[in-house]
Structures are given as structure tokens and as C-alpha cells.
Amino acid sequence: MQVDFAAKELSVKLVYYGPALSGKTSNLRAIHWLGTSNACGELMTLETQNDRTLFFDMLPISIDARSGLKIRLKLFTVPGQVMHDATRRLVLQAADGVAFIADSQRSEAGANRESFLNLKKNLEDNGIDPERIPIIIQFNKRDLEDIRTDDELAALAKQSRETIYKAIATRGYGVMQTLTGLIRETWAKLEEEHQLEDKFDISPSRLMNEIESQLKHDVRRAER
Ligand SMILES: Nc1nc2c(ncn2[C@@H]2O[C@H](COP(=O)(O)OP(=O)(O)O)[C@@H](O)[C@H]2O)c(=O)[nH]1
Ligand SMILES: [Mg+2]
């Protein structure tokens, strides 16, 4: 996190991690498409021909809280392929929170596991304690055949520290819940470390209300 006290501006870095093709870029695309244009900036994506992220994607989100605090969220994705480990480590530098995007297909369980271990190693290499940084897990591609069942994910959620979300990123399903869950956990950690409520006069719950109302379209108003 970077703080500019004079400008009352706070920058938070959130990283979407996971194996190749699990849906990290699709999450950012869906956030850009579902979010308000006021909050969401341009989505920067770098892609090779075979649809895999070459370096990373980045989506900036700005929230202006009523207390005057400006919150700048930067969402990054990492390239999933094994060979891009140096890029992943670089993108993880100074991360405040991580969304691990897993592929729900049974065939991808090994790739998920390998990528999760790689995440922990790269956090450690960056001097970040993997047991303390907020990490949430999204099981994406819930629309496909031969996926891990809801019961299996519930059992997994019981034994893991991380909250588990379910998503179909290409349809936007579950994507905003994952993002707001990640922001909530990340803010709680930053609050604990930096006493933001005292410094900026904003409680975590009020902040989440403001983020949700500025990020998401008001459905009732849109329907009128
Ligand atoms: N059926 C299905 N396909 C998905 C879903 N999310 C992503 N995909 C597809 O999976 C492929 C890889 O997605 P992408 O977001 O580029 O993965 P990344 O490598 O993690 O950035 C693309 O063809 C997407 O259209 C999903 O929820 N359901
Ligand atoms: Mg990608």
C-alpha cells in the first residue's frame, strides 16, 4: 500500500493469480464491463495470439470516499504459464491482497495445486508472509462439465483459511462478489496494520458501502 497523506490518497495493489487459462483476464474484463465507468478506468491487456497473457493485465479502479479519502485500487493479473515465473514474482511485489483463480475442472486440479504452491513461494521470495497476506480463492468455470462439485468445494472451504467463491467469469457471475470479498479482507488487514480509521476517519464497513455503491451500477435506477 502507498499512502499520500497530503493528497489523502491511498493506493492498494490486488493481484489475480492462478494457472494458465483459469480465467484471470476474464475476471478483469467482467469487472470492467460490470463496473461503473466512474470507478473503472481503462483495462490494459497484453495478449499473445493463443489468448494467453504475455506479461500482465491491469485495471485501475478509483473510489472517492465522502470523507475525502481517494482510494486507488490496481488490479493485476499474472501470466500463468510455468515459464513466466520471473514476471509473476515481479507482479506480486508489494501486493496487498491476492485472488487465486482456480479452474473448477477436475483435470486442472494438479495445475491449480502447482500454481498455489508457486504463489506461496513467490510471496516468500518477495518478503511477504503467505500466512498473513489476504488470499481468497475463486473456483471459476462453474458452467463446464466434470468439475469439482459444490459439496466438494464446501468441504474444501471448511479446512482452508481462504474464503472460497464460485464464478463463471465469462458471464460475469461471481466476479464482483470475489472482488468485493478480496477488498474487504484486504482492507481489514490494512486497518489492523495502519489504523486507517483513525488516520482517515473512515470505518471499514462504511468504506465497503461506498466502494460497492460507486463500483456497481444502481440496478433500480437503470431500470427506470
Ligand atoms: N466456459 C468457461 N470458459 C471460461 C470461463 N472463464 C474463462 N473462460 C475461458 O477460458 C479461457 C482462458 O481465459 P482467460 O481469462 O484468458 O484466462 P487467464 O489465462 O487466466 O487470463 C478463455 O477461452 C476464456 O473464454 C468460464 O467461467 N467458463
Ligand atoms: Mg490472462
Q: What's the gist of this structure?
A:
The chain has helices at residues 24-34, 85-92, 109-125, 150-159, 175-194, 196-200, 204-215, 219-223; strands spanning 2-4, 9-17, 58-64, 70-77, 97-103, 135-140, 164-166.
Task: Please explain how this structure is put together.
This protein has 224 residues and is an alpha/beta fold. It has one domain (2-207): Rossmann fold, CATH 3.40.50. The protein has 8 helices and 7 strands; from the N terminus they run ββαββαβαβαβαααα. Strands 1, 2, 3, 4, 5, 6 and 7 form a 7-stranded mixed beta sheet that branches. The chain binds guanosine-5'-diphosphate and magnesium ion (MG). Magnesium ion (MG) binds at residues 24-25, 53, 77.
CATH-defined topology: Rossmann fold
**DSSP strand count:** 7
* CATH secondary-structure class: Alpha Beta
Rounded mean pLDDT is 92
Ends: how far apart? 39 Å
Largest sheet, in brief, is:
7 strands, mixed
> What is the CATH superfamily?
P-loop containing nucleotide triphosphate hydrolases
Shape: globular
The low-confidence parts are: none
Count of helical segments? 8
Bound ions, cofactors and other small molecules, one mention each: guanosine-5'-diphosphate, magnesium ion
Structural class, by secondary structure, is alpha/beta
